[in-house]
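Model the whole thing, not chain by chain.
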Amino acid sequence: MPLQTIQTHIPAGFIDLGVGDPQFDLLPLQLLRDAAQDRLSQSDNSFLQYGAEQGDGYFRAALADFLSPRYGFPVSYEELFVTSGISGGLDLLCTLFTKPGDTIFVEEPSYFLALRIFADHGLRVVSIRTDENGLVSEELIEALKIHRPKFLYIIPTFQNPSGHTLSEERRAQIVSIAQERGFLILADEVYQFLSYTLIPPKPFGAYINSEHVISLNTFSKILAPGLRLGWLQTHASLMQKIVSCGVLDSGGGMNPFTSAIVRSVIETGGLEKNIDRLVSVFSTRVNVMDECLRQHLPDARFTTPHGGYFFWVNLPGIDAQALQTRARTHQVGLRPGIRFSSQNGLQDYFRLSISFYDSDQIEEGIIRLKRSVS
Amino acid sequence: MPLQTIQTHIPAGFIDLGVGDPQFDLLPLQLLRDAAQDRLSQSDNSFLQYGAEQGDGYFRAALADFLSPRYGFPVSYEELFVTSGISGGLDLLCTLFTKPGDTIFVEEPSYFLALRIFADHGLRVVSIRTDENGLVSEELIEALKIHRPKFLYIIPTFQNPSGHTLSEERRAQIVSIAQERGFLILADEVYQFLSYTLIPPKPFGAYINSEHVISLNTFSKILAPGLRLGWLQTHASLMQKIVSCGVLDSGGGMNPFTSAIVRSVIETGGLEKNIDRLVSVFSTRVNVMDECLRQHLPDARFTTPHGGYFFWVNLPGIDAQALQTRARTHQVGLRPGIRFSSQNGLQDYFRLSISFYDSDQIEEGIIRLKRSVS
């Protein structure tokens, strides 16, 4: 029996349109081989030592140079901290900024696996309504009459699962509210660079001078999840608390070895090329899924995503969990909306992803879904 | 100004005998270059995907094959879980098994940076006396009359800082006590393979069937700290809770990319050769430091370590913090005992390390220390 390497197992012949993993063909082995060759054939071996708590300065400088033109504002390496991915970053921030029983705010819907991290830290989750322009500021203000959250966790751009993007106006509003009311904003900007038909607003990194914002990002969707490498951007006042935590004092910075290799990926222009390729591939797939849904599921309500991985589909009157069960017999998968709800709602919604299958399989998957619905 | 890559900075000309980092010359760049070349030139790119929560099965199988003959009992890959090093492992276990305000037990003295991780989790630390044979069981029994700890954190072999090794008899006793009284033993076995003049007792991995033991280990001291890769070994009943935590569900297993490369290091025999080299180098240095201390600091009381990194030196009547200050003016460093105490004790002790300097520098450092004392 083969041993397990990967997290997600999909039976042969099954098309799981619910899966949010990148397709294997899109994981750039050669790019990483070349980068490893470049970095490991130099004489410097300092990345094998306990690393600086904030992360390798040269890696952060390369990353800052990469981010500045794409974010549209100057990013300094001093504002960047290396994480082991967004999940690891959220886990660290929960340890440092919360204690069990504390309240936090999330969007409704939100990324269900982040909710599991918060549960491990014993946090009470209150969800705030969203619309096509993301989190509704008025609802946030209402919730603050009852609760005093430690932080708001938000996925502002091409949200998971809704695909919606928070408007620039609301970003500024929400930051003001956070300053006034004294809570942090943890912005998960994982899909920021995967934009197809819309240039998204500036990420929350633009608001770090408020001293109430931590912007998290990762190489998982723009390079490879198996690297377990990401970063956060924040103000010096918050950075100080993060870099002086015990786990970094003991083990040094996160992932110096992988950082050194990814530094080569960035410096040689490989990251830019890889993102261009992903945007090209995913743009096509969005069009395919869009057409297929319109053709085969004419009752489905959805907004065509401008970026990211996900179609958030509403089929009025349907129970998406029951649909998932029927769909399995037709060899197709989806993620029911209830999994993204903090209040057992969204039962007539489901999430589909363009990340794991190419166009032909997406079409076949939607045809199977049609059979499951009717 | 050069950017910061590494954690520890030592001014030119200064000999910091307190530092517990490995020397740069002992970080095997070529070994990792060859391993990366081997792994990344194959067609399989599955280690770039979200990885299995417990860690790559093939890596764990290679590690189990490596451990079994060295531990002297069969280790199954099913008992192994991949961590981002012992610090990351301890942090995860604190999140999963404790809440702020809980009590834990540590040795007196103990590794001061682990104490910082426990502080971040709001844990109350109670320290238990040790002697030449490690933790004193009777003192543990006494402390249990007052406290109900969630776990005992222990460094059983070539302890940091004392260098002492817990006897086999006491290991069995302590495990029995943990079972009876319902607390976990978190055993930090970081120096297990660095044995020079004594074959240590079996690690706590031998006791996992008690269902009260988690044995932690790392590649930091036998390969390179910058990899941020380690493992823990435990019983299926505890493994279940660990692998199903939120941060793994979201991000997948820890460090699949680095695991895949280190798998090649193990499978090609490179890890074994590297350990042999380290044992040879460090054995010589222990002899040098031992002779130098006897010659230049005849009042110093210490036990020559049989393994690991550290000399734990007692100079009766001296204030080791004041000595540290004077030593700085002589361009030599040490770690005062008070840093390893949970009760502000051990003031006439200090820790010296053989890990960062070769024999000539160790001799020069001890001569400088002599000048600082007199």
